[in-house]
Design goal:
The chain has 271 residues and is of the alpha/beta class. Helices cover 45% and strands 13% of the residues. The chain is globular, with a radius of gyration of 18 Å. The protein binds 1,4-dihydronicotinamide adenine dinucleotide.
Length: 271
């Protein structure tokens, strides 16, 4: 049994993961705005630094698992999307690496990405690159020029940066070579307060409802948490840098077998 840090543990996918991980006998250190061991606002530099320090103190610098689930989505402000979804994730991935390497067993990391990484069209590479370079000033400045779909670009860029971080670092000596298995889950539309916020929005509601889900309906937080729990378990000892899509087939349908490709953001052409 070990210590698992879960950001965004108070709601949705993070809360469902917390329930499963605790039922399996692990100790959870939750990080969230409310109802968590570590109360923190991950949208600010100060909040992120304080949260990281608090986590390290509570765990004595030894962590067996990490799940980064804190996040926001449309229709919240696009700057917040970058700050929470990317910077609020990167701080834990990078900042807890040594504590994960100090685990007695094989430590596991599951970053929560999204199927928007592959299904959201024309996400600007320059924005993703700025995020991965930790150039917040450039990333935020770029948002000013991205037009009406800026929130969609910000969301997909933040989640693509998370996926690329995982792909780039997971197989390296500092991660796989130091006893850490880092992977990502890429959920599709999952019925949580975050998704409900999008569904209730005048602009995003119809777009979300119109997006094809071959299995029908939306996923549940428990369906995503089941995979996260597996990716935290011994089953993932031989797994590093994988992005696991749990999305009812949307990625397979939209991306098919001629990826990479670009297409118009026209829902009608996808159904
Ligand atoms: P949720 O809204 O149920 O949970 C998100 C959690 O993050 C909440 O507990 C919230 O308080 C916390 N959080 C938000 N802002 C924060 C801040 N500034 N500081 C600290 N904590 C903060 O949402 P859900 O759906 O469970 O989302 C979890 C993750 O899954 C997110 O990263 C989201 O982008 C991702 N995701 C969700 C999908 C969906 O359809 N629900 C689809 C694909 C990815």
């Amino acid at each position: 049994m070990g210590t698992v840090v879960i950001t965004g543990s108070a709601s949705g996918i993070g809360a469902a993961t917390r329930t499963r991980v605790e039922a399996a006998g692990h100790t959870v250190v939750g990080v969230d705005l409310r109802d968590a061991e570590v109360l923190a606002d991950l949208s600010t530099d100060e909040g992120r630094s304080a949260a990281l320090a608090d986590v390290l103190e509570r765990t004595d610098g030894v962590i067996d698992g990490l799940v980064t689930s804190a996040g926001v989505g449309p229709p919240v402000n696009e700057h917040l999307v970058l700050d929470i979804n990317w910077f609020g994730t990167e701080v834990f991935l990078t900042g807890l690496r040594e504590a994960l390497a100090a685990s007695e067993g094989i430590a596991k990391v599951v970053a929560v990405s999204s199927n928007s990484t592959t299904t959201s069209p024309n996400t600007p590479d320059e924005l993703i690159d700025a995020l991965l370079a930790m150039d917040g000033a450039s990333a935020h400045a770029q948002l000013e020029d991205l037009g009406d779909f800026v929130i969609g670009f910000a969301y997909a860029a933040s989640k693509t940066a998370v996926a690329r971080y995982v792909r780039r670092h997971a197989p390296t000596p500092e991660w796989a070579g130091s006893g850490i298995r880092m992977n990502a889950v890429a959920p599709g539309a999952t019925m949580t307060p975050l998704l409900q916020g999008g569904l209730d929005d005048e602009m995003f509601g119809p777009a979300i409802k119109g997006f094809p889900v071959p299995t029908g309906g939306f996923g549940s937080p428990e369906q995503i948490a089941t995979w996260i729990e597996m990716m935290l378990s011994d089953a993932a000892d031989f797994m590093a840098g994988s992005i696991v899509f749990v999305d009812g087939g949307t990625d397979a349908m939209v991306r098919a077998d001629d990826w990479p490709r670009t297409y118009n953001f026209d829902m009608g052409s996808l159904s």
